[in-house]
């Protein structure tokens, strides 16, 4: 069926706003009253010794996020790689390795080539795709659909959150199978996840403050994004979104790396977006934020109510997100990252849905 903008100015805006609905649909597809339902053939996570996760672009940042989940929740060591590096490095794949590929289109040439390197070497090949008839899905032992619906905007939005959703469910299944989380611990987190579409909807109500912030950011030539733990990959994704559609140069660093280089760039003209819900790493990140403020850098703090209260009012702008379980923050904090980029691009008048030089699906090298 033909997809229209449904009253939105851009497909990207529509796809951002659709996230509560597509996430709810995806949860419906993967959850029953008894817990997580995966398509056959399942994976025997008890036997998995190691995972490699490979992708490009936004899908790669979904993999970086998943590494934290699989390692922390399920205790499986994960190596994450960019497909174009992985394929030519031809890394050795040891026994007990599950290879996982994430791709919205399922046709990205580098990701497909990386998958083919693992065929016959890895114990099994998993993929997380939006297009179920795609090459990557067909060449996998198990393809998990993300149920995002057609994504038209070149810059990926709803596909990213739906990728995160499936990767988290998979990590929880692995955690359960390996006895790292009890059934009731998983059930409690799944209840939180079922609430997430509603929380996401509430977060969409923060659009005005994010737009105002983005309009101020639109004049910048360079923007830094900082995050720790699960917020590090979200910072990477936030920087990618901003450069893709607004053409503002943006870089992301793990907050702890600030003093190893990027701090030299800080002055009043370089805004720093700090993504930091009030979790166990919050104080460390806030101290990095203070280092930026002390050098005159304008800080955009994206946090929750507790974080905002603790950080005080030193930040140039504070965007307060609803509260969510710390393990679910990547799904929610994708939203302000997307909206900042979207509104900055609209303020600059760029072609949001078809940014210059970029393609939706890169099927040639
Ligand atoms: C292109 C798109 C990105 C996407 C990447 C990977 O660069 O512009 O939005 O993240 O390809 O695409 P895939 O279809 O493999 O997820």
Automatic annotation (TrEMBL):
Q: Which domain of life is it from?
A: Bacteria
Residue ranges of domain SIS in the record: 41-180, 213-355
A GO CC term assigned to this protein in UniProt: cytosol
Location in the cell reads:
Cytoplasm
Alphabetized UniProt keyword annotations: Aminotransferase, Cytoplasm, Glutamine amidotransferase, Repeat, Transferase
- State if Repressor is listed as a keyword: no
Q: Which residues form the active site?
A: 360 (for fru-6p isomerization activity)
Q: EC number(s) on record?
A: 2.6.1.16
GO biological process assignments: amino sugar biosynthetic process; carbohydrate metabolic process; fructose 6-phosphate metabolic process; protein N-linked glycosylation; UDP-N-acetylglucosamine metabolic process
| MF annotations from Gene Ontology | carbohydrate derivative binding; glutamine-fructose-6-phosphate transaminase (isomerizing) activity
Q: What does this protein's UniProt record list under function?
A: Catalyzes the first step in hexosamine metabolism, converting fructose-6P into glucosamine-6P using glutamine as a nitrogen source.
Subunit annotation: Homodimer.
Name the record gives this protein: Glutamine--fructose-6-phosphate aminotransferase [isomerizing]
Whole-protein residues included: 241 to 605 of 605
């Amino acid at each position: 069926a033909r997809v229209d903008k449904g009253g939105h100015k851009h497909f990207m805006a529509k796809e951002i706003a659709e996230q509560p609905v597509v996430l709810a649909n995806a949860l419906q597809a993967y959850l029953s009253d008894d817990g997580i339902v995966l398509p056959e053939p399942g994976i025997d996570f008890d036997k998995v010794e190691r995972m490699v996760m490979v992708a490009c672009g936004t899908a790669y940042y979904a993999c970086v996020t998943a590494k934290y989940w699989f390692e922390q929740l399920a205790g499986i060591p994960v190596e994450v790689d960019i497909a174009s590096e992985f394929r030519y490095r031809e890394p050795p794949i040891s026994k007990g390795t599950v290879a996982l590929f994430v791709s919205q289109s399922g046709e990205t040439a580098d990701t497909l080539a990386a998958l083919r390197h693992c065929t016959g070497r890895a114990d099994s090949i998993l993929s997380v795709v939006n297009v179920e008839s795609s090459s990557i899905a067909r060449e996998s032992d198990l393809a998990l659909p993300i149920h995002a619906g057609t994504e038209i905007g070149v810059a990926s939005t709803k596909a990213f959150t739906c990728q995160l959703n499936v990767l988290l469910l998979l990590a929880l299944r692995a955690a359960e199978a390996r006895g790292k989380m009890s059934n009731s611990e998983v059930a409690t987190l799944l209840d939180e996840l079922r609430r997430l579409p509603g929380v996401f909807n509430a977060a969409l109500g923060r659009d005005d403050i994010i737009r105002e912030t983005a309009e101020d950011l639109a004049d910048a030539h360079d923007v830094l994004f900082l995050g720790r733990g699960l917020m590090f990959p979200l910072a990477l994704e936030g920087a990618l979104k901003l450069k893709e559609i607004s053409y503002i140069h943006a870089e992301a660093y793990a907050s702890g790396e600030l003093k190893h280089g990027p701090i030299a760039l800080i002055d009043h003209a370089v805004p720093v977006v700090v993504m930091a819900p009030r979790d166990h790493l919050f104080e460390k990140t806030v101290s990095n934020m203070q280092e930026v403020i002390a050098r005159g850098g304008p800080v955009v703090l994206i946090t929750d109510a507790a974080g905002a209260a603790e950080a005080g009012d030193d930040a140039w702008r504070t965007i307060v997100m609803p509260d969510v379980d710390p393990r679910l923050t990547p799904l929610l904090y994708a939203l302000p990252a997307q909206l900042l980029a979207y509104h900055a691009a609209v303020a600059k008048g760029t072609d949001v849905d078809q940014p210059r030089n970029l393609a939706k699906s890169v099927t040639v090298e």
